[in-house]
Design goal:
The protein is an all-alpha fold. The protein is built from six helices and two strands, in the order H-H-H-H-H-H-E-E.
């Protein structure tokens, strides 16, 4: 539960924004992956977590560059590099790692993590920063890398979404 304490502390330490919902999304972009990193360190799987996080971030940045200037990358404001949503990808990366590896037998905690990630995506649409398609793509990327395990420092690779009932 150290991971939950880290997320709560980040929420209290964040600067006040004009829109609290948008602020929540920004806090979760950092808070959920940070909480998952604390858990990964406690479980001695930080190297695997870091590799997956770096690859997830590289894929998002690469896609933003590759699709820049195309209609799918246009943000609601008219600016570019909106595809996919990096905030949503980071939040779902942290949430799916937490749910699948840290909250294995705590379905409510996993649901809370996924709910926070979902609200992060919605906050990006609400703020006019992304379209729903950009958010869904970010969620899928983050979820995929967070639920995966490459097996670095362990017995083998796996994919676990958590939420056992």
């Amino acid at each position: 539960m150290k991971a939950v304490a880290v997320v709560c502390a980040l929420g209290l330490a964040a600067p006040v924004a004009a829109d609290p919902f948008e602020q929540f999304g920004t806090v979760m972009k950092y808070g959920l992956p940070l909480a998952a990193a604390v858990c990964a360190a406690d479980q001695d799987r930080l190297e695997d977590f870091a590799v997956r996080g770096i690859l997830q971030t590289a894929l998002v940045w690469g896609m933003k560059e590759y699709f820049d200037g195309t209609p799918i990358s246009r943000r609601p404001s008219g600016e570019g590099k909106g595809f996919p949503s990096g905030h949503t990808a980071a939040a779902f990366f942290g949430a799916s790692d937490l749910a699948g590896k840290c909250f294995e037998d705590e379905a409510a905690a996993g649901a809370l993590a996924y709910g926070a990630a979902g609200l992060t995506g919605w906050s990006r649409v609400h703020a006019g920063e992304h379209t729903p398609e950009q958010v869904w793509t970010g969620a899928l990327i983050g979820f995929s890398f967070g639920a995966a395990s490459f097996g670095i420092g362990s017995e083998g690779a796996s994919f676990d979404v958590g939420m056992r009932f």
